[in-house]
Design a protein that fits this description.
about 300 residues, mainly beta, two-stranded antiparallel ribbon, 4 helices, globular, disordered N terminus, L,D-transpeptidase family protein, LD_TPept_cat_dom
Amino acid sequence: MASSTDHPHRGSRSSRRDPWPAFPRPIPRLPRPAVALLMTVALTGCAALAENPARDGRPPASPAGGAPAHGGAPAPRSTPSAQSLLSPQGAPGTASATEGRTEPPADAPAALPGLGPRTRAQIPDSSRQVVVVTGRARDANRSEVVLYSRTPAGWRAGTPWPARNAQKGWTENHVLGDLRSPIGVFTLTDAGGLLPDPGTRLPYYQDEGFGISGPGLAGESLEGAFDHVIAIDYNRVPGTSPLDPTRPLGEEKGGGIWLHVDHEGPTQGCVSLSEEHMKELLRALDPARRPVIVMGDAQSLQK
């Protein structure tokens, strides 16, 4: 679950596309009237809050290293394995043999700290950016987020950011309505929000469907929580708007698990950061570096 503050500024829709495999299936656009989204405890995740989710088409391509293109349809691309992208177990992988040959300095460890061998094995070889979300405890709804970037010398850590997760903590078997965040390794391929693109290289879907109102689980206001979101590829189709309702693993496995703006309360399944840190993360993520998120309570991640 997530939220966003009601913001009067709604710029024109921003369009970007990353080099990850896309799904060129046309998706109809949301009707013009803004959608008021209400929280219901029977739903889980963020996108589940949308009664009429927006289903925009894939944003037009932007030339590598250039300004975003406006207009035009995306070229068809090959479809990745849904299981490798959507399963909570992630895709197995080990450190590349061509990297890490230089002894890393103290602040750039060869292996990601806090992650055990089973967790590290789920990170794809190609990933050069890893967002690590470490929960305080299995049943806690507070956590810490660190963006790691892989260099020839090792993994370079960004600044730790405080975060929140689901009200009841974490689970390795997330189901609809359990109020727990899924543990696992997931790709990060798409972003969006009520407000204009703050400068991300991920595909960004701006839409009024990200508007939300009403109280959160702790009685706090949810307005503004979906100003900016990053879809976590749990039980969703990569290459689509975060609001796309498709659930490849079935509705009972939940969905709509996002990184989004903090609303001063626990989420239904998402991970929330301050607006400042969400914008910073959006600008830092580079689809060419195959970003993934590793999330779970500290004890689980050490396995």
